[in-house]
Amino acid sequence: SGEQAVCWASAGSPWWCCPPLPPPGISAAVGLFCKKDDHNKENIFNSINYDVAAKKRKKDLLNNKAKTQYFHQEKWIYVHKGSTKERHGYCTLGEAFNRLDFSSAILDSRRFNYVVRLLELIAKSQLTSLSGIAQKNYMNILEKVVQKVLEDQQNIRLIRELLQTLYTSLCTLVQRVGKSVLVGNINMWVHRMESILHWQQQLNNIQITRPAFKGTTFTDLPLCLQLNIMQRLSDGRDLVSLGQVAPDLQVLSEDRLLWKKLCQYHFTDRQIRKRLILSDKGQLDWKKMYFKLIRCYPRKEQYGDTLQLCRHCHILSWKGTDHPCTANNPETCSTSLSPQEFINLFRF
Predict the structure, then answer these.
(1) How far apart are CA 276 and CA 285, in angstroms?
(2) 8 Å CB contact between 159 and 196
(3) Cβ density class 19-47: b for 16+ within 10 Å, e for less
(4) Which end of the chain, N or C, is less packed with Cβ atoms under 10 Å?
(5) What is the domain count for the chain?
(6) Residues 6+ positions from 267 with CB-CB distance below 8 Å
């Protein structure tokens, strides 16, 4: 202490102005406490940075690599046409798309064509109305559809048309309209477009394997049964493809009565009268009329199973799905919806 007083005195200050010195060991303790405090702050800062980085990695993993569907416990959703964001019952197309479990519906042969048609309508005009999660689910469901077709080797033409429609819509949105209309990074959508091209290439290169079946074939059936089965086909392109299998089937596929019934099934009498085509023999060429009619008018849609809307409680669900309906007879309150009617529900 004497040396410190001398130092203060030599600096020009009297000895009684010297600050009181701490007891021995206190200065070391204070220094150690300060070091610990700085160390704790550094640990807290590093912990925060680690948590932020971990959350970011988890978010990137979900956004870029997740193949799982976002499921909800209830397989129905409340929809009311007069609802808004400020009123009860407001629901978006993306929310309904997430809640109604389309991922499982594609595994049901009765619902497959319905879901594919719905995906096509969304690709044409409603893709930008989907949320980010709904768009991700859309692509995941589409990938499952492609994988199912590659495994089953069925509905190949149907999925080719769906992929072409989606790719054309994305090209328009990305190149002409601009990237701001799509949710997510533009590079992610470019990657999705590359995936669509890859799926198209896979479908183009698919090799149909002939089943090892030695029993009765379609051509072994009587002609009346063959015609009866061919009348069940609702797409004229399927009739043309069937006629290319064997010469005998080619003759049956040109049957005038077969094409007449197909025209009458899809189109009204008024529509048919506006598109009359005569053959060289002076008879109505129903086959040419059919392909001309489908270019002018929509065909009649037919599905094994559809979504249903309960008129009493305004709940949308698949047929056979239990929902909390308060009607005395819920079955009489359900109305089947076509894919276009499903889309129209969410045009507020």
Answers:
(1) 8
(2) no
(3) eeeeeeeeeeeeeeeeeeeeeeeeeeeee
(4) N
(5) 2
(6) 293, 297, 299, 300
Closest CA to 339 of 312, 299, 314, 303: 303
Angle at 131 between CA 97 and CA 314, to 5 degrees: 40
CA-nearest of 3, 37, 36 to 21 is 3
Q: Are residues 166 and 255 in the same domain?
A: no
Closest CA to 202 of 139, 167, 241, 151: 151
**pTM for the full model?**
0.70
Residues 241 and 171 in one domain: no
- Distance between CA atoms of residues 152 and 3, nearest Å: 97
Query: Is 81 a member of any domain?
Result: yes
176-179: which pairs have CB atoms within 8 A and are 24 or more residues apart?
A: none
Taken as a whole, the chain contains a residue count of: 348
Q: Per residue of the chain (348 residues), give pLDDT as tens.
A: 444 444 444 444 444 444 455 555 545 444 544 555 555 545 554 555 555 555 554 554 444 444 444 444 567 787 765 544 444 445 677 777 777 888 888 888 889 999 999 999 999 888 888 877 888 888 999 999 999 999 988 899 999 999 999 999 888 887 765 555 677 777 888 888 999 999 999 999 988 777 776 778 888 889 889 889 998 888 899 899 888 888 888 989 999 999 999 999 999 999 999 989 888 888 889 999 999 999 999 888 888 888 888 887 888 888 777 777 777 776 778 888 889 988 888 775
Q: Work out whether strand 307-310 and strand 334-337 pair parallel, antiparallel, or are unpaired.
A: antiparallel
Range of the domain at 269: 235-296
Of the candidates 200, 204, 105, the one whose C-alpha atom is nearest the C-alpha of residue 162 is 200
Per-residue tokens: 30: 């204070």
